[in-house]
Amino acid sequence: MTLALGSAVFTDAVAAAVLAPSMHNSQPWRFRLHAGGIEVWADPARRLPAADPTGWGVRMAIGAAIFNARMALAVHGIPGHVTLIPDPAEPDLMARIDPGKPRPAAPEETELHAAISRRHSNRRPFTDHPVPLAHRARMTRAAQAENGWLDLLIGPAAVDILARLAREADRILTADDAYRAEIAAWSRPHAGTTDGVPADAGGPAPEPYDLLARRDFGGPPRAPGRDFEWDPLVGVLGSHADSRAAQLTAGQAMQRVLLTATDLGLAASLISQPIEVPACREQLRLAVGRRGAPQIVLRIGYAIPAPASPRRPLSDVIVEG
Q1: Nearest Cα to 206, choosing from 287, 317, 86, 125?
Q2: Global pTM?
Q3: How far apart (Å, rounded) are the C-alpha atoms in residues 267 and 309?
Q4: Please, what are the domains in the chain?
Q5: Which whole number is the average pLDDT over 253-260?
């Protein structure tokens, strides 16, 4: 018997999917209910040509959206079977999610689904309270469960190497007029928008002495005594290959880690500058001693809740027919 999704379940899955993170909150996705399953498409109009000329960032974001959709289907008792790059003749068709044989949601699926609406990037300073080893182990296992890897950097020397690579990558990127213009175009100084990064969600303005390089989305100067943590927990998340499909898989691993962190009461933000500059990315790979490809850097810790970035209405991302 061929299984098919109904429109209500499809809408719930898309509502979860669009809460995934994306570079500059560009939300580069579209969704279609077709032949009983969900097609996930890249939206070429929302590519970032300066920061993401290869489409790596789009694929990471769509991978994260796929994972959210899977968890939304799971709580409806429907496992989602994902086929990546299902039609080579359609380069913007990233994946298809087909319903499997109904079954009850696993407890972890229920927990991760509940974390979707609470997860968002926190670009503000974290506290210096250490993340317990058990939490670190659980996040590492989350990446492995999605065929990825997560190396949490231990000790000031390892963090300093990452920080130097992030600063060098940021210096190279911000020397490009088009890159700076792109960030400005996606910065939202006023409320009421449905995409981009609002100033209050973008964190305080970066300072030259910051350990980890951050993008400037027009936030205010930080308050006195609110410097960033001196010993941040940072992790490098990667894949075992670096194909288009591997990047979609890495996006799912990233989202499982982020939702696991949220479920554990942790905050996180994404650092992608070292990935955007090929030479820095290779140095990062060598630094962590991996044969695979680094796909994102995560900063994780405890923090006061910060505002979330907005999302477009579902009518903007659902393709009829």
Answers
A1: 125
A2: 0.97
A3: 15
A4: 7-119 (3.40.109.10), 133-301 (3.40.109.10)
A5: 98
